[in-house]
Amino acid sequence: MLTIFFIFDKKIIMENVNVSLVIPVKDEEGTLETLYEKILEVLESLNLSFEILFIDDGSTDRSFDIMKQLSQRDSRVKIVRFRRNFGKAAALSCGFEKAKGEIIITMDADLQDDPKEIPKFIDLINNGYDVVSGWKKDRKDPWSKKVPSKIFNKITAWLTGVNIHDFNCGFKAYRNEVVKNLDIYGELYRYIPALAYSKGFRIGEVVVEHHPRIYGRSKYGWERLIKGFLDLFTVVFLTRFLKRPMHFFGGLGLLFFIVGFLINLGLTIYKYTTGALIGGRPLLLFGVLLMILGVQFLSIGLLGEMINNVTHGRKKEYLISEEIGFE
């Protein structure tokens, strides 16, 4: 990778950026200084040009002030500050849009991800992978997070066909062209490997060291898990049926129709063989409504997802109050 550096008044101006780090931040004042120093130590040892993009997702502590100080000391540190908390997907989307690096690495700001693992990601990208996902094999979290996550990852791998162990890991690396061709919204950021795989990109995985949280508290709970499963169905639909929705809706419609038809056929045979009246039987109504209600509710939900997927890219899902360090 060829990089040209110019130095003016202790500021580094790069014609080409090899690596961009995109780091969403939400109330992480206790970790930012240490995280910056660790990143600096690793990336400077690799002799690569880099930039660090902190996306302040509505922090209410001193996080922004600390990031601002870092940017004043080092022009490679850039900050985007949201007006309020818009969520991790919005933070990543913004970071992907701003990033100039040939390789883009995402990681959390809580120091549970170790920057010393960054060279592993870069090596795999240079060896032909388009996306490399971290795997927290020895996860330093309580069982209440590990067990649901393991179940979630097994189901996700089975449904999406992407054979990785840890979809939830925020430590990932991408070629620039991958993130520029992906639209993520809502909670879909955890499914980026599946979305990239559906577009033909090559997906890899690397085991990373995971540290227990020292500062702050986790922002995720059972609510995140529930949302994750709901979004999983969205991803499966968008990756398999977006361009051929009739395969999905037609399959469901045929299933419901056959079941309803068999119910009503059975009632009809029963009527003509026994002479019994069936007009007031709940099973008759169930047979008729089975097709209508089932298809109607599924269609409304999934057609809504289709419309959202087509139109959401026309507008940003966040508002920026301040930017520092950008040209």
From TrEMBL:
The keyword 4Fe-4S does not apply. GO terms for molecular function: undecaprenyl-phosphate 4-deoxy-4-formamido-L-arabinose transferase activity. Residues 20-181 form the Glycosyltransferase 2-like domain. One of its GO terms (cellular component) is plasma membrane. The chain crosses the membrane at residues 248-270, 282-303. Keywords: Cell membrane, Glycosyltransferase, Lipopolysaccharide biosynthesis, Membrane, Transferase, Transmembrane, Transmembrane helix. Coiled coil: none annotated. CDD domains: DPM1_like_bac. InterPro entries: Glyco_trans_2-like, Glycosyltransferase_2, Nucleotide-diphossugar_trans. GO terms for biological process: lipopolysaccharide biosynthetic process. Pfam families: Glycos_transf_2. This is Glycosyltransferase. It comes from Dictyoglomus thermophilum.
